[in-house]
Amino acid sequence: MAALAEEQTEVAVKLEPEVPPTLLPPQAGDGAGEGGGGTTNNGPNGGGGNVAAAASSAGGDGGTPKPSVAVSAVAPAGAAPVPAAAPEAGAPHDRQTLLAVLQFLRQSNLREAEEALRREARLLEEAVAGTGAPGEADGAGTEAASALLSRVTASAPGPAAPDPPGTGASGAAAVSGLATGPAAPGKVGSVAVEDQPDVSAVLSAYNQQGDPTMYEEYYSGLKHFIECSLDCHRAELSQLFYPLFVHMYLELVYNQHENEAKSFFEKFHGDQECYYQDDLRVLSSLTKKEHMKGNETMLDFRTSKFVLRISRDSYQLLKRHLQEKQNNQIWNIVQEHLYIDIFDGMPRSKQQIDAMVGSLAGEAKREANKSKVFFGLLKEPEIEVPLDDEDEEGENEEGKPKKKKPKKDSIGSKSKKQDPNAPPQNRIPLPELKDSDKLDKIMNMKETTKRVRLGPDCLPSICFYTFLNAYQGLTAVDVTDDSSLIAGGFADSTVRVWSVTPKKLRSVKQAADLSLIDKESDDVLERIMDEKTASELKILYGHSGPVYGASFSPDRNYLLSSSEDGTVRLWSLQTFTCLVGYKGHNYPVWDTQFSPYGYYFVSGGHDRVARLWATDHYQPLRIFAGHLADVNCTRFHPNSNYVATGSADRTVRLWDVLNGNCVRIFTGHKGPIHSLTFSPNGRFLATGATDGRVLLWDIGHGLMVGELKGHTDTVCSLRFSRDGEILASGSMDNTVRLWDAVKAFEDLETDDFTTATGHINLPENSQELLLGTYMTKSTPVVHLHFTRRNLVLAAGAYSPQ
């Protein structure tokens, strides 16, 4: 990199001194060389030049920034670096780029910088004045300059981030540092930026115009090449069809070639995989440049690089083909809009690829699932089980409770061992156990001794709660951990709470009556309840839109509800009134859930982010941003250190509560995800979606380990039994299915995981794992719950056909 320090002179480009200008690093070599990740940056000619013009501020003294010009060249893989000062030895492409930069400097009145660059590049005055490089059309320099100017316009707002492997401006030069800070949103030199910088920045990458009539020929040529390649490469290279089709169509629309775009779409949209049909429907409605500006799906597709995982052999084959054909248009798209994650080893088969693809942004990068996850359970607090309680519990003979005691001790001692995969006990602050919590844990232990041990030979009974005449429209259900209360969220904006035990729901007495109670009496908790208010059902009013999520706190004192009105409300189950309305989401909130330890809760909604809250803070503690579409469902890990979110972008993400980082991205579903559940030991995650499939994931290794096929409609609810032996799934197809979780997770060899190239071989054993299917008359299954004794409770609203 040769920077001309001695030629610096003062110019009139206004830059705020506090914004550090950036200098693009030279990107030399074949980006895919080491580490197996990323596309390369050399153009189809084998080694295009990237010119970076950058402003460097004067020696940190806060003075006027002075432009220095740096010319770097990208060498082909394995070759020695090209000397910076000899661009005329390169291809005409380099010369055209250089002319574009010089023309831009001249238009911006940066004479000294222009002369310095010309001297460095040994170019003559007349070369810039209009005569192109030998063998080029006269307008080539001007055309390149206009492409360059659009690129400068695009790069104006926001600080310039270093590009990940697989990026790189190809064709036009990347100019950075001319106004990269937020301090100069209005003008870049003399180039005005549009009012919506984010949208125009995103779209202007489509400015590189190719010949619109050639797009069909380019795409057909690539299609023919891939279809004629060897079977082992064909499946991998076929992944290119969809992202290239979308970007070529959008490029035609953006450059206002509407007829060509329509013809291109009609000719090739039928070749795309069936799981992209919904996206293609949205795409087909974008027929004019104006349509593109407000379309979220399109902007998502543009701003996030589509990730393809391809073996090195297949990638080299593709690269050689594009270089031979001089197919710049497709190569530019590959460079700009795709991230090719290259791995060494055998190419993947069609089945292996199909299992993993289907999300809005392609597959997850392998690096995304490498970080360590503490999936183990926290050590349970030691609680003494008092003997007198057991004597009261004696059912038939006095000898019975005594026999149970050793069992209880064994249960207590099992949880006292520290799990090696568990997070440190104090990694995140958790609320201390109250006396009532300890009593509840003791009750839980007693129930556990009566728990039925489930398995293929001992399936659970299922108790189905059907909401009849639910003309208000049932939109959410939750059941308390001890199975004593059921809450329903309805489309008429109410939340209704039922008691499903003989014990009725009672409110606390009024303040005047409470002052008369003897606070020292043993039954004070009973005395504060007002018997006059006792009823089986309580209705909670407060939301102003359909209630899409409901969640009881572990101690049964509170209930959360989330609604279309953009709020999450916390209700007291002592007074049956709203305590707090949490406002943070701007759009409907699709789901909310309490942490297994209480205090924290998570919500997810149409604004594409999930938020972590604490009950005593009215602002969110963490915002989990990264999904490209609505967050439909949220779930806490059993150790409360992680949150899983399922989205309409067809991915599942796992977030670290401590720092807000995304630690896992799971792709493989072919439709929006609507249900999540963790196994009781914290090792595995099950997810259900509109594609009717249930996928099983190993959290520690970050890989898919199973696929359960059987449902014919959206899987709305998933739950593991209390010991993790059985997975229950409930669907819109009006069935509950029980699966053998022990068999699904056994024989997982970690050797397979160490290859980590995505060579997953999913056994086709759904029918062997299916233990039972239970039909309802005409009731979609909205919610499932295992009681402490392993009885299944299911809930849904009867929908007459």
Automatic annotation (TrEMBL):
Residues 385-396 have a biased composition (Acidic residues). GO terms for biological process: transcription initiation at RNA polymerase II promoter. Pfam families: TFIID_NTD2, WD40. Residues 1-69, 154-174, 385-437 are annotated as: Disordered. Residues 408-419 have a biased composition (Basic and acidic residues). It comes from the Eukaryota. SUPFAM superfamilies: Taf5 N-terminal domain-like, WD40 repeat-like. GO terms for molecular function: RNA polymerase II general transcription initiation factor activity. It is found in: Nucleus. Residues 30-50 have a biased composition (Gly residues). InterPro entries: LisH, TFIID_NTD2, TFIID_NTD2_sf, WD40/YVTN_repeat-like_dom_sf, WD40_PAC1, WD40_repeat_CS, WD40_repeat_dom_sf, WD40_rpt. Keywords: Nucleus, Repeat, Transcription, Transcription regulation, WD repeat. GO terms for cellular component: transcription factor TFIID complex. Homodimer. Component of the TFIID basal transcription factor complex, composed of TATA-box-binding protein TBP, and a number of TBP-associated factors (TAFs), including TAF1, TAF2, TAF3, TAF4, TAF5, TAF6, TAF7, TAF8, TAF9, TAF10, TAF11, TAF12 and TAF13. The TFIID complex structure can be divided into 3 modules TFIID-A, TFIID-B, and TFIID-C. TAF5 forms the TFIID-A module together with TAF3 and TBP, and in TFIID-B with TAF8. Component of the TFTC-HAT complex, at least composed of TAF5L, TAF6L, TADA3L, SUPT3H/SPT3, TAF2, TAF4, TAF5, GCN5L2/GCN5, TAF10 and TRRAP. Belongs to the WD repeat TAF5 family. This is Transcription initiation factor TFIID subunit 5. It comes from Ursus maritimus (Polar bear). The gene is TAF5.
